[in-house]
Specification:
Blueprint: H1 3-13, E1 18-24, E2 32-37, E3 42-47, E4 51-57, H2 62-70, E5 74-80, E6 84-90, E7 96-102, H3 130-134, H4 149-166, E8 173-179, H5 185-197, E9 201-208, H6 211-224, E10 229-233, E11 247-254, H7 257-267, E12 272-278, H8 282-286, H9 294-297, H10 299-320, E13 323-330, E14 339-346, H11 352-369, H12 374-381
Parallel strand pairs: 4-13, 8-9, 8-11, 9-10, 11-12
Antiparallel strand pairs: 1-2, 1-5, 2-3, 3-4, 5-6, 6-7, 12-14, 13-14
Length: 385
């Protein structure tokens, strides 16, 4: 066992609940890695500038797994066990030093879902939340139905993703458009959270193409007394917003419907965008390449590459239009497979050189694979590129 492994074992054996791995060596490594103890495993969150990748680690494999993640790649490790902070420093020559010190109150407090601590969610588990009761997630008394705990957790995870960019929101009024709202489970939760928990003057319009869905959603909003939540029958393409739009939400809008939603959000100067695309068929139909034919030879590879390329292009175009954009892992609360969540927050200024760099990357991909994404066409025709 190496010296580094020995010090990692000291921290893990002491009951480490959190570890932060920082000071990467070289630009190819993750910006930082955060390892947190969950109920039955450790979870490593590996951060790039715009993405987060997660990896679950078995407790009996923690030392080996963490060592593989960091060996020769990072220069500092801080770990906390509740009473002591463990500090491991690694020089550029590979020399390792270790010390521990008394953990100060408030330093990297243990995760609320580890050991016997009760997880604190954005939604109060002991409050009657009517939409959650109707969904069967809460009992009539506001208690979580045991078999629905995963869904409750996933709803909260979505709210946390939104709250991350809402902390510095300067206004007390919030206008939201939800494209392709469907049965609107998350729309109702967003309205409840912003109006009842955050105490904002929130106005939400949900838009969908199914008349029956819209009728049922409006009935539910009236039943809950959500006066500023309305649902309308209409197409994403060409929709005219009745108010200045602060946030656009589009969850599972199919294929190019996502592109029209993102385009409208940009045109409206929306401050925040949350989009979970699905059914990305457009590029899959167009893609052709001789140099990289390996990526188009096998159907499943072609499909997945086309979907990933679609979202990467969307992210770059949003950056070029002045939005700091992240692509995050997102698990829908209806237990659909993992998806990508596009989270964009408007920036004040985008240097021309930065805009051109993001745009050139998209155009080189378009040239190589002979496709033309809808969002690129829309923004170009509007003079936004």
């Amino acid at each position: 066992m190496t010296e580094l492994e020995e010090y990692l074992k000291v921290a893990v054996d002491a009951g480490m609940y959190k570890m932060v791995i920082s000071k990467p060596i070289g630009k190819d490594n993750f910006r930082k890695i955060v390892v947190e103890k969950k109920e039955k495993f450790y979870q490593a969150a590996c951060y790039t500038e715009q993405q987060v990748f997660h990896q679950n680690i078995k407790p009996n494999e923690a030392v080996d797994a963490i060592f593989r993640l960091i060996s020769g790649k990072y220069m500092q490790i801080n770990a906390w066990d509740g009473s002591r902070e463990h500090i491991i420093l690694i020089s550029k020559k590979g020399n390792v030093s270790y010390r521990n010190q008394r953990q100060e109150p408030g330093d990297a407090k243990p995760g609320n879902d580890s050991h016997n601590r009760k997880k604190k969610y954005l939604l109060n588990q002991d409050t009657v939340i009517p939409p959650l009761v109707d969904m069967g997630i809460f009992t009539a008394e506001g208690k979580i139905v045991r078999s629905m705990y995963d869904k409750f957790r996933q709803i909260n995870r979505f709210l946390e993703t939104v709250e991350d960019v809402m902390r510095d929101y300067p206004k007390d009024r919030l206008n939201i458009i939800d494209f392709g709202c469907g049965k609107s489970y998350l729309t109702f939760i967003l309205y409840y959270y912003f109006s009842e928990v955050k105490k904002l003057d929130v106005h939400i319009i949900g838009l969908d193409l199914k008349a029956e869905v819209i009728e049922n959603c409006n009935k539910a909003a009236k039943k809950y007394g959500y006066e500023n939540l309305h649902f309308e029958l209409g197409d994403i393409n060409g929709y005219k917003a009745p108010f200045p739009v602060d946030m656009v939400v589009t969850l599972h809008a199919c294929d190019t419907a996502t592109d029209y939603a993102l385009y409208n959000a940009i045109q409206w100067d929306a401050k925040m965008i949350f989009s979970v695309p699905c059914c990305q068929h457009e590029l899959n139909r167009q893609i052709q390449t001789e140099q990289f034919s390996l990526l188009t030879r096998y159907g499943i590879v072609k499909e997945r590459f086309s979907a990933l390329a679609t979202d990467a292009i969307r992210a770059n175009l949003l950056e070029a239009c002045g939005y700091k954009t992240q692509l995050l892992e997102f698990i829908d609360f209806s237990h659909t497979p993992k998806n990508i969540l596009i989270r964009s927050v408007q920036k004040k200024i985008v240097p021309r050189a930065v805009k051109q760099r993001y745009l050139r990357e998209v155009e080189r991909l378009m040239e190589e694979f002979h496709f033309t994404p809808t969002l690129y066409q829309l923004l170009q025709e509007a003079g936004r590129l």
